Amino acid sequence: MTDLLSRPTETGPDELEGRPLNVSAAIAGLAAAATTMLTFMAVAVVGWFLADAGGHGQTTDALRVGADVWLVGNGSGMTVRGAPLGIIPLALTALVFLVVHRWGRWAAASSQPIDDDRTLGVAATIFTGIYMVVAVVTCVVVGQEDSGPGLGRAIIGSMLVAGVAGTLGMASGTGRLSIAVERVPAWVRSVAYGAVASFLLLLAASALLVAVMVMLGLNQAASMMTGLDLSASDYLMYTLATMAVAPNAVLFGSAYLLGPGFAVGAGTTVSPTVVSLGPMPAFPLLAGLPEAGPTPEWAIGFMAVPVVVAVVGGVLAQRAYRVTAYDSAALRGFGCGCGAALISTVAIALAGGPMGSGRMADIGAPLGEVLVTSVAAMSLGGLLGGVTTAWWQRRTAARAAD
Questions:
Q1: Contacts of 70 (CB under 8 A, 6+ apart)
Q2: Worst-scoring range by mean pLDDT, 38-47, 55-64, 282-291?
């Protein structure tokens, strides 16, 4: 009898450590929404006090602005006195995405180990559902009669942010992500690798272009800001607003490199072949726009950048996932370019949106033209990169054999 009482259980103490993943996912979903929203609220309150030492409005107004900014970062958009403000500051979205991803990893790290995808799927649904409920409740609370975030977009945006970032975080933390990747066929991984590499290279080239253009327009931007007669706190908030939409400007730069360009108001066009502008808002990044009128002939050369980055992407994919047959290398390279074109088009679509009901209702790139030109340019580049690399690898292998 004593032997039976002292016999150890089959479940060791290490297996009992941590809580169920579903519980951790619920806590993490609530914490992810609360921490990001409270951060934006804190920044809004600090900005309110810096602006006029709290002389106008109330603390609740600043808190409401912070909640609105959080919802906009989740893709909700805004309506102010009937005027739509649809541009999503993608820097805020990226910040929220990273924080949500970290909370997903925390949920996995603080939970009992799992060995099946069904448990992960249930936990991801719980995480996403709680985050989305917080977004919906916040949207209803802060909304006013003629101003406020869009409920429908808030639901979709929060669901995508929490669903993608939270699920990836938990999948990575539990080890299920690496297992899922290993199940994917090599040719799919090759195409995805090359597509992402090409897209990131296009973003890098666009960021360099935007940075150079903004540097060239610094004097104009300084004159613009001086004319606004802003206080030090106003300059700070202007800087934060500029940083929030900097990724949007980079993606507009990608549309420029791809050829179709973009619009910064109805009837305007900024592309390598033509620049047509009208009166512009007083915003520093707009000082980087090229001068209106005919473009120099060498500007057409910018349209070669997407081809070059797709070539590099095809080369990297072929080197990482080598195949010897030319037809396989060609198909994979072509797929890399097509994938990069699709990713670029979706990203450019997210960068645009209306900023009012008048002239500024048309801000963004013509997506149909972007899709066609990007597929044509980047598919060609990916195909060239894949085939050329395969040829070089076969030649090198033949020399080594001799």
A1: 36, 37, 40, 41, 96, 138
A2: 55-64
Cα–Cα distance between 201 and 207 in angstroms, integer? Answer: 10
Q: Give pLDDT tens digits for 256-280.
A: 999 999 999 888 999 999 999 888 8
For residues 374 and 307, the answer to whether their CB atoms sit within 8 Å is no
Q: Which has the closest alpha carbon to 262: 237, 235, 288, 240?
A: 288
The region, left, alpha or beta by phi > 0 then psi within -120 to 50, assigned to residue 53 is: left
Report whether 173 contacts 104 (CB < 8 A). yes
Beta-carbon contacts of residue 372 (< 8 Å; ≥ 6 apart): none
Name which of 250, 279, 247 is nearest 264 in CA terms: 279
Tokens of 392: 């070089």
Task: Name the residue with tokens 């539990």.
Answer: 174
Question: Residue 244 corresponds to which amino acid?
Answer: A
CB atoms within 10 A of CB 401: 6
CB 353 within 8 A of CB 263: no
Question: Most distant CA pair in the chain: distance in Å?
Answer: 97
Cα distance between residue 117 and residue 103, in whole Å: 19
Structure tokens at 290: 């090229």
**Distances 160 to 131, 165, 167, 395 between C-alpha atoms, Å:** 10, 8, 10, 46
DSSP category for residue 19 = B
Q: Where are the alpha helices (DSSP H) in 74-149?
A: 90-109, 117-142
**pLDDT tens-digit readout, 213-250:** 999 888 887 777 777 677 777 777 888 888 999 999 99
pTM: 0.90
